[in-house]
Amino acid sequence: MRRIILVVTLALFGGAGLLDPASACAQARVKVGVLKLTSSAPIFIGVEKGFFKEFGVEPELVYFQAAAPIATALAARQLDVGATGLTAALYNIVLGGEQLWIVADKGREWPGYPLVAIVVQKALWEAGLRSVKDLKGRRIGVTQLGSTFHFHIGNILEKDGLTLSNVTIVPLQAMPATVEALKGKQVDAILVPQPFPGVAESQGFGKIMAWAGDLYPWQIAAIVYSKTFAADRARAVAFMKGYVTASRYYYDAVLVQKDGRLTPGPNYDEVVAITAKYTGAPLDIIRLGFPFQDRNGRLLVTDVERQMTWWQRNGFIKRVLPLKQMVDTSFVEEASKSLGN
Amino acid sequence: MERVTVHDRTAFLIRPEHRVVRVLAVLGLLALWEVCTRLGWVPALFLPSPLGVIGELIDMTRSGQILVHVAASLRRLVLGFIIGAGAGMTVGVAVGFFALAEAVGQPLIAATFPIPKIALLPLLILWLGIGEASKVTVIVLGVFFPMAINTYAGVRQADPLLIRAAVAFGAGRWSVIRKVVIPSALPMVFAGLKLGAGTALLLLVAAEMIGAESGIGFLVLQAGNLMETTRLMVGIVLLSLLGVLSHWGLTRLERLVLPWRQT
Amino acid sequence: MRVIVERLGKVYRDRLGHAVTALDAIDLEVEPEEFVAVLGPSGCGKSTLLGIIGGLVPATSGRIVFEGERRPGAPLSATVFQEFALFPWRTAQANVEFGLEELGVPAAERARRARGYLEMTGLAGFERKFPHQLSGGMRQRVGLARALAVEPAVLLMDEPFSALDAQTRQLLMEELLAIWGRTRQSIVYVTHNIQEAVFMADRVVVLSRRPGRILDVVDIGLARPRGEAQLADPALVRAVERIWRLIKSEAQAALTEEQTRRPWSE
């Protein structure tokens, strides 16, 4: 009699373990920090079209309003993956002793591919504020100090013979707030990524002075792995396979150029619709342009070192870290190879 | 026959000051913290070591950064405090002494005082811009209310006997205000100043986190944005020092101005 | 100066409109350089009377007239309070100077007079002390100096030594008489202590319970200067007995009556 009870109890608990769907799902779930921007489109595509599920991972999207907090969340082990901008904060986190890994391309500022724009007040544009040189002495709004926008405007100014000290950088902490500040005339110009520049023009309070990528190209955003996620090789590579698949789909749909002009691919409308759904922006604003990234998600690794040098020169980070302590391209290489072509 | 010696039964009620233990407690905590960080029990990024913070403080002092930030913050703080306290005292005396002013002022103050001044900051920025004006104004508002309310209370509790005595010796309305009501109210005024100083510091930091280029609040914001946690701690230490020093300073001032107060 | 109190009446109205008659048709004259005590059970309006004379309480009916010679710039009266009423934030000297400030006396002269009267009241060397650093007796001396400093025509004293212990009271009473011997203004001295009244005054005005009326005015024929020796003088003892018989029943009734509050301190 006792033996029967023992067997039944074991079966119940054991069976429960096997049958429990939650534990299996817990393994597959990957927490991904993203921003609601056009540049996150490959992630949205991957989720929507099941490319990640194909390889056994289920991304759980966590939305943020600025890039640096994603890095902080990664360091605090609240996220596994971050799809975020390369900010001074990210470098300081690694310098401060918390390991993070930059593993893939998630957006480059590239000529001809609109991502971030310098948007000025409509009234100032009409009064003659038309070029970078005109920004001297002006108030420029960004999300945070040490953000990608800060880096970008700093380099753009230096190209025209100016420096950061010739302008006033106003940190507004979140992208919607930055846009509001332009609307409310608290600042003269802002740097924001798509879809916000399009929104500002369509609502009539801003004018796109220039696409920042036309003025200064760089590796602006990346996929970043947390220390523990990177150590879980199987899941990390699986996620990357899903990402590379999505990246190729994205590239073929919206980034292909024939004879120097953008030629929409067969899935263009679908990608526009997915992006509009996840960012909440109107379709025609999305259609204004998609940001560039490598078809296979490969990083511009040397640019990472160039960034760190600039940050250090301007006093935002204390020293430059050797690349191999921060960048790991093995995931994207392994994924691309296994996917073929 | 019995002989019994009387013993002191209140011995257990004595509370020694334990001065040494107090100091050791603080030093002990700092030492423990330093050890934890060194051993890696706590990640250095999340909780910088005390010695690291002191080192950063020294570096920043040498480079002059500390002076820039502290000076900017002090300028805003002192200006806001003086205007807010001055306005608060004037309104408090008026509302306390004149019945008409009380009828108008008291309900207005009671209605507006509960509003957290931090919540007004976005509105002030809208009206006055991102510059110094909105920052100083929010500090003025934060200091005004405790000062007005405390001065009012101080005026109301002025001893009627002393007012009578003053009138008996020929004092008119303004003499009574100047020579009896205001000196009577001073202890409560100082209580208001201390309250106001705490609020002012809080509002200073909040204001400096929006559209500033210098100041301790800005330093904290910038260090936070850049994930430079050691500098962040320096900012926090500076704020704490500012709070302690202002309280100490006000207490010393109080003893100087009110030598007749036996505590 | 002479103080003429003509058919003086005072009626208080409380918040509910109830009328309380504190004083009823008081007629009195205080001669120049005379020491008059006003005595009666509690609630008899004696402090009210003093307040009206000093211009601190308005009369409901009748009037007060000061008649005679007055030094230029001197006020009609000055008051010494039972609870001292010193300004705690002012030193002894600054307290004494208060009335002089209000009279517009220039600073050097103020300081001179203040120091002089502090010396007269035995407080030389204590000019820079604050009231909280002084004993009760010393504080009242400051109060006295403050009132004397303005050199009023009439000195009004409202139970000035009630808040002090018996020994201090006796000493200060003798001191007051000695000082008065030199300054010689009229004094109206309110007290509830019969012995005190008889010891100090030329005449004792005895008031009844509320509504306060004059029961009698007793002449005190004791010679001056008065000192400890007079305490046992049969004339003094007889006067005390006479007054006590007058007010004994009043005092007994006052004991069972409800406590009345001074309206101006509400």
Largest interface (CB within 8 Å) is between: A-B, 27 and 18 residues
Largest sheet of chain B: none
Number of strands of chain B: 0
Give Rg of chain B in angstroms.
25 Å
Structural class, from helix and strand content of chain A?
Answer: alpha/beta
**Could you report the average pLDDT of chain A, rounded to the nearest whole number?**
90
CATH class of the largest domain in chain A: Alpha Beta
Residue share in β-strands of chain B:
under 5%
Biggest sheet of chain A: strands side by side, in what order?
A: 2-1-3-12-4
| Overall form of chain A | globular
Low-confidence stretches of chain B: none
Q: What is the CATH topology classification name of chain B? A: MetI-like fold
CATH-derived architecture of the largest domain in chain A:
3-Layer(aba) Sandwich
Number of strands of chain A: 14
SSE order and pairing:
The complex is a heterotrimer of chains A (341), B (263) and C (266).
Chain A (H helix, E strand, L loop, with lengths): L1 H18 L1 H8 E7 L5 H8 L2 H4 L3 E7 L3 H8 L5 E5 L2 H8 L4 E6 L2 E2 L6 E6 H5 L12 E4 L5 H12 L8 E4 L3 H9 L5 E5 L2 H7 L3 E6 H4 L2 E2 L1 E6 H5 L1 H22 L2 E2 L2 E2 L5 H12 L3 H4 L14 H13 L16 H10 L2
Chain B lengths: L18 H21 L10 H13 L2 H33 L1 H14 L4 H12 L3 H25 L3 H9 L4 H36 L7 H10 L3 H29 L6
Helix pairs in contact in B: 2-10, 3-4, 3-6, 3-8, 3-9, 5-6, 6-8, 7-8, 8-9, 8-10, 9-10
Chain C lengths: L1 E12 L5 E12 L4 E5 L6 H8 L7 E7 L9 E4 L11 H11 L4 H14 L15 H14 L4 E5 L7 H18 L2 E6 L2 H7 L2 E5 L6 E6 L14 H23 L10
Helix pairs in contact in C: 2-3, 2-4, 3-4, 6-7
Sum this structure up briefly.
Chain A is of the alpha/beta class. Chain A contains 17 helices and 14 strands. In chain A, the strands form four sheets. Chain A has a five-stranded mixed β-sheet, with helices on both faces. Chain A has a five-stranded mixed β-sheet with strand order 8-7-9-6-10, with helices on both faces. In chain A, strands 5-11 form a two-stranded antiparallel sheet.
Question: Could you please describe the fold and organization of this structure?
Answer:
The complex is a heterotrimer of chains A (341), B (263) and C (266). Chain A has 17 helices and 14 strands. With 341 residues, chain A is of the alpha/beta class. The radius of gyration of chain A is 22 Å and the shape is globular. Chain C is of the alpha/beta class and 266 residues long. In chain C, helix 5 links the parallel strand 6 (154-158) and strand 7. The longest helix of chain C has 23 residues, at 234-256. Chains in contact: A-B, B-C.
